[in-house]
């Protein structure tokens, strides 16, 4: 990681072949999908004009540092997501996984211990310690623990 810029794996000049095809059957979902694709096209077009680059680039080192820091501490701007803390763990861990970056064992253990503190004695995980457990943070916590994939992580899940 020497600060190099690498092209996004999911964005290349032939991305039009990856766009949604509704096979002539329009639905609410297909209409929304096409709206999202047009919106993304506009953003990419503006990006290309502003940066005079053929396609967006991924600043891997900056993303990695931001994500790594986020597993240890999030700024006050994230306070509104207090009931979504297992989701934050999942999103950060999944992003690191997509970047093919290893998670330090001490950090992985800290995440396991944090998620354990979100687990309810009656089952499932809550959005944060002392909150009520429900399906959404349980899904996020289990996924985060599976990404970590250590014995400690699997042992957190009360199976």
From TrEMBL:
* InterPro entries xrefs: PGGT1B-like (IPR045089), Prenyltrans (IPR001330), Terpenoid_cyclase/PrenylTrfase (IPR008930)
Q: Which cofactor does it need?
A: Zn(2+)
Give start and end of each Prenyltransferase alpha-alpha toroid domain.
58-159
Which UniProt keyword terms apply here? Metal-binding, Prenyltransferase, Repeat, Transferase, Zinc
Q: Which domain of life is it from?
A: Eukaryota
Repeat: present as a keyword of the record? Answer: yes
GO CC, sorted alphabetically, is: protein farnesyltransferase complex
Is Signal among the key words of this record?
no
For this protein, what is any one GO molecular function term?
metal ion binding
Q: Which Pfam families match?
A: Prenyltrans (PF00432)
Segment forming the signal sequence? none
Family the UniProt entry places it in: Belongs to the protein prenyltransferase subunit beta family.
Q: What is this protein called?
A: Prenyltransferase alpha-alpha toroid domain-containing protein
């Amino acid at each position: 990681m020497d600060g190099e810029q690498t092209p996004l794996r999911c964005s290349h000049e032939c991305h039009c072949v990856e766009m949604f095809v509704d096979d002539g059957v329009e639905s609410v979902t297909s209409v929304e999908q096409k709206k999202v694709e047009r919106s993304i096209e506009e953003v990419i077009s503006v990006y290309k004009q502003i940066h005079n680059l053929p396609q967006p680039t991924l600043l891997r080192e900056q993303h990695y540092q931001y994500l790594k820091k986020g597993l240890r501490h999030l700024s006050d701007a994230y306070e509104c997501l207090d009931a979504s803390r297992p989701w934050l763990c999942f999103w950060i861990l999944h992003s690191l996984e997509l970047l093919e970056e290893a998670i330090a064992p001490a950090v992985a253990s800290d995440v396991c211990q944090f998620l354990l503190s979100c687990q309810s004695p009656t089952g499932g995980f809550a959005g944060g310690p002392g909150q009520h457990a429900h399906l959404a943070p349980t899904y996020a916590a289990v996924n985060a623990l599976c990404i970590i994939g250590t014995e400690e992580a699997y042992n957190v899940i009360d199976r």
